[in-house]
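Researcher: Please translate sequence to structure tokens.
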Amino acid sequence: MTLNDPSVPAWPAHPAPLSTLEDRVLARLAVRDDRAFEVLVRRHAPAVHRLAASMVGPGAADDVVQDVFISVHRGLRRFRGDALFSTWLHRITLNACRQALKARRFIPLDEAPESPASHDPVRAGEQAQLRAQLAAALQSLPPDQREAVTLREVAGLEYADIARVTGAELGTVKSRIHRGRAALRAWLTRAGFTP
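Model: Translation complete:
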């Protein structure tokens, strides 16, 4: 069944452009309209990529993003809208990252390709070194702390949203983030960086 299939009734046109619609509306439309799904992907892919890169490394992030949006597309019919779309998406992203780590399909962070250098090679080198140290520091955390810290610091989720995504109690989330931040601070200090 395709969008041009005459047996499928036409989806009513929206007066507003798709890009102005809320995620929950787009998610309902995306079940039958690939254009709505494309808007969701364009809107959320950068945040999914940042989260994936911080969890599995930049070398595997593209594969994780692809897996995430395949899962989202397959699961749109089951998305009821009880939670925010972004919360549901973060849960899928977290699961895809866990699968990638479990399958060991990722490039180790210390072997990840560096980003292109900017016009200042010294600054670019310092930034690449700091990124590598931060990635190594994150990887040193226990998985539950790494997830909580990444969801807070990289994805920018509120504590309550992290609790919903991870299925942990709010107090547990706060504790994981506090312990994770303290461990990161200690790790970076030992590595010679002032956090």
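Researcher: Any highlights?
Model: The helical segments are 23-30, 34-56, 58-75, 85-103, 121-140, 143-153, 159-166, 170-190.
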